[in-house]
Amino acid sequence: MAGLAFAGPLLSSVYDHVFTQDSVVVEADQQNGYCTSTWATLPGNDELLPRLPKADEREIVRWEREQRIVQRQTLRVLIGLRGNTDKAAQLRDVTITVVRRDPLPQGVLPDVRTLGCGNGEEPPEAAGVNLDLLAVGRPVSLNALSGKPGQRAAAKEALDWGKPVSLPHSLNSGEVYSLYLLGRTEAYDVRWKATLTWWDGEKTKTAELNNGGRPFRVMADPGKAP
After folding, report:
1. Angle (nearest 5°) at CA 187 between 138 and 178
2. How many of the other CB atoms lie within 10 Å of CB of 159?
């Protein structure tokens, strides 16, 4: 299994400042590239299947937003935080919420590609979550999921992308912290989101992470779903 080449400081001018003047600058970047994602076409879009292997990321993003294709089995989100004040902030928790879980629709066709672009520098930490085992609408902490038997396959997959997440994590001014969050399904069509919670020295703050205002979406591999 090849990891993503993780080049340079994560936060840059293209980052979405969820809290521009706050103690932490945050972004969640859904990974859509050839090295990090595999796809399936949704019913009625079979003509895209032979185009997927040669499609560039702009086409992939457009098709995904038009709900013509969907990531399959595991969706990876690269989360970045940067300390933004003179005081140290502390990331205390990451929670996952399954927004919706549906049966796999008929007519989903998987792209034949598998991941693989060579190993690169890994982010400091990564966490995998089996979304199939989470109650819909109920936030669940990564700490609560750690070590659960049903989460072992997801946790093992996350090891290919970074060391296990260890919270709390303190951020000094200008310090960058990044992690991969892997949402995995083996049987369903799942929409989900994440929430970060941190302490800025005076107050508890939160940031909801999603895919440009929509929940992240991942669908089981139709060739492997029960």
Report:
1. 60
2. 14
